[in-house]
Amino acid sequence: MPAFKLRMRTSAAVLAGAAAVTALGAGLVPATASAASASPQTIAAQIVPANQLSSFSQIIAHESSWNVTAVNPSSGAYGLAQALPGSKMATHGADWKTNPTTQIRWALDYMNERYGSPNNAWAFWQTHHWY
């Protein structure tokens, strides 16, 4: 495939993805995404303020690769935000082990309480490689 056509298709895909993220940031859920099947990233886009979402996403990507059941074999830290102990997330729901919404709400509250915001938490993470 010529590079020009590939770039046009890639650009179209990027624009479509950006439109979807913008819609999510506005509190809209695409018709194809249901609450039960939404990815953790989609759920986060509905919960985390738009001006904090990039930082929140960076932390979660580095901590767990967006794996809801991620476990650190050394420390036992658990979930999207790598809570230690994982049971701390029970303050936000009994389903903390498997529910990305519960984990995201807990993580956002943790970042806000400890650092003031996900943006501040990400700034700390970049310096220390933990938060």
TrEMBL record:
Record keywords, A-Z = Signal
Identify the stretch annotated as signal peptide in this record. 1-35
Q: Which InterPro entries match?
A: Lysozyme-like_dom_sf, Transglycosylase_SLT_dom_1
Task: Report the residue ranges that make up the Transglycosylase SLT domain in this protein.
Answer: 52-123
Gene3D superfamilies xrefs = 1.10.530.10
Q: Kindly give the Pfam families that the UniProt entry links to this protein.
A: SLT
Q: What is this protein called?
A: Transglycosylase SLT domain-containing protein
Q: Which organism is it from?
A: Kitasatospora putterlickiae
**What does the record give as the organism's lineage?**
Bacteria, Bacillati, Actinomycetota, Actinomycetes, Kitasatosporales
